[in-house]
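Researcher: I need the complex structure. Ligand is cobalt (II) ion. Inputs:
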Amino acid sequence: MGLQKEYIEAGRITKDVRKWLIGFVKPGMKCIELCEAVESKIKELGGVPAFPCGIGVNHVTAHYSPRSEDTTEFTEEDVVKIDFGVHVMGFLADTAVTVTFNERYYSLLEATQKALDESINTARKDQRAGEIGRTISSIASKYGFKVIENLSGHTVERYTVHAGKSIPNVYVPNLPVIRKDEVFAIEPFLTTRDGAGYVVEQKEETIFSIVGRRKTKQKRLDEFIDAVWDSRRTLPFSPRWFERDFGDVERILKELVRMRVARAYPTLVEGAGKPVAQFEHTVAFQDGSLVVLT
Ligand code: CO
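Model: Output:
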């Protein structure tokens, strides 16, 4: 079976957004402004965000999407990761880029991009996922950087961003083989030599998803679940997207997480507070060779 055309379409939109983004990002921008611009661009090009656009400044590594009241601006000193995805009918493409205007981190970005490119160029079908991690970590150490060991790429499935298999950023033995019909994201995260090389969870939560559609016997909560389910199914969402229709989103979400109807994704930061770079592509095997969808 060939790749569904929706994967190709989601990938094409992602590619166009990334191209536009590189010229759009400027120091002095607010994180929220950048985030919302990416999400709007996705829609303008005919897609839907697969998850809230992530903006990770310096040590903020993953799962942070600005709240509407976030007034943080990034400067030319910063390393800024922009992680976004597009879905078309639930078929999704996930990508990330890092930008910096700080010369000190040019080589960190270069190494991370190289790790992604090399892992794509050397990937073979019927290879164990751990081999991709081996390539990534060997490039990182060649440049004198560290890999974030507890973050990994992942297979994607319809309406599921992180499906069953992990694509690690370090060598891990005995992981499953990637099958020829699987779509997966490779996403190396690198930090400086004095970094911890792993991420830790912070209290802050800005990204949520519905675990399953369930009645709670509370009208307000049920209305919220219906609204999220209609537009997102189990895909992650930002409270920002529902503020206009539900003023008290934060309270509703607190309740739903407590009832385990929703789950929250805590913000992940570098363990030693060092800057992290990330590049990501979604790929799939076609006729035996790896095709970059994004
Ligand atoms: Co990803």
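Model: Summary of the prediction. Residues 204-267 form a domain with the Arc Repressor Mutant, subunit A fold (CATH 1.10.10.10).
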